[in-house]
Specification:
With 321 residues, the protein is an alpha/beta fold. The protein has 12 helices and 6 strands. Strands 1, 2, 3, 4, 5 and 6 form a 6-stranded mixed β-sheet that branches.
């Protein structure tokens, strides 16, 4: 059986969000060969990541915190995530955005980013608002977090209670899609390379193109004002290997901006992927490897364009019983 982990992030077990969650579960259960485990996240104890970076130095130990998302891989909720072939996250909209419980959960998936285990796992999301709305803002945030977690994004429902019955039908439909994707995941998890992920999210509620262009250009959308040029001109990077990465990043950064201005967004995304991977490597070498994390950059995390990505997910986790 393919296994879907359906997480309710709302504190209200019988509220509007829970109703949409149940509808999505109904849709998933209608697909033969799929089992759904319905979990109320508030039944588990876990807090924020404390930035100890133990999971990077020893990825086989996972998280060392003594709670349900830690215990060196033995935490109850952590194990459920590892066993899943698909993930459903249903949350209420709080303060015009995603709720705190969802943020905590996603943040604590951090150790699995270094093993590559979750890369390509299907995921769907539900964001439910009942007053002013802003469910679309919350849905974009969840899509962004799915991107950062390397999930294969099946779809997201941004719902308001004013259109509740319509939303329930949509939830059932997405639940069915998630179940079908989970069956394929059970046969073989198809890992997402960086390029596949960045291009796959281009038509999703959130994609990395404009936010990352703004990030690397310090909000100017000008290559000559980029963090790359600033790092080189100001001498803030001392390690030769790091400076070489910045030098290599110059051309794809310029090409990304040029393609974006021409509205050739796919080309812009490809060039930006190369520039951002080189920027990531440079900053890891200069600021993280020796002073903060005290470990080399894991192969699964932002490999350079000329590196063999078949090595990126070489970690083989222990089977969870």
């Amino acid at each position: 059986m393919a296994h879907i982990l359906a997480l309710l992030m709302s504190g209200r077990r019988k509220g509007y969000t829970a109703g949409l969650w149940q509808a999505a579960i109904e849709g998933a259960k209608a697909v033969e060969g799929v089992a759904v485990e319905a979990v109320h996240a508030h039944d588990y104890q876990f807090g924020p990541c404390i930035s100890c970076f133990a999971c990077i130095r020893r990825p086989e130990d996972y998280c060392v915190l003594d709670d349900d998302m830690g215990r060196r891989g033995e935490g109850a909720l952590f194990q459920k995530v590892r066993e899943a072939n698909g993930l459903l996250i249903a949350e209420p909209v709080h303060m015009w955005g995603s709720c705190a419980q969802t943020h905590l959960f996603i943040e604590r998936l951090y150790p699995l980013g270094w093993t590559g285990e979750l890369s390509g796992m299907p995921a769907m999301t539900i964001s439910c608002a009942s007053n002013q709305g802003m469910q679309h803002l919350a849905a974009r945030t969840l899509a962004r977090w799915c991107f950062c977690s390397n999930f294969r994004y099946v779809g997201g429902l941004s719902a308001h209670t004013a259109f509740y019955e319509e939303a329930r039908n949509r939830a059932r439909y997405l639940g069915k899609k998630l179940a079908q994707a989970a069956l394929k995941d059970k046969e073989e998890r198809k890992l997402l390379s960086d390029e596949e992920k960045w291009l796959a999210y281009m038509d999703k509620p959130w994609n990395a193109l404009l936010p990352y262009l703004e990030n690397l250009t310090r909000g100017t959308l000008r290559a000559e004002e980029s963090l790359i040029e600033y790092g080189l001109s100001q001498g803030t990077f001392q390690r030769e290997e790091a400076r070489q990465c910045l030098e290599r990043a110059r051309e794809p950064m310029q090409r990304a901006i040029a393609a974006w201005r021409l509205k050739d967004y796919e080309a812009a995304q490809r060039h930006l992927l190369a520039a951002s991977a080189l920027w990531t490597r440079a900053t890891w070498l200069e600021f993280l490897e020796e002073d903060v994390i005290r470990a080399k950059q894991p192969s699964v995390y932002r490999p350079l364009p000329d590196e063999d990505e078949s090595l990126a997910c070489s970690f083989q986790p222990t089977e969870v019983s």
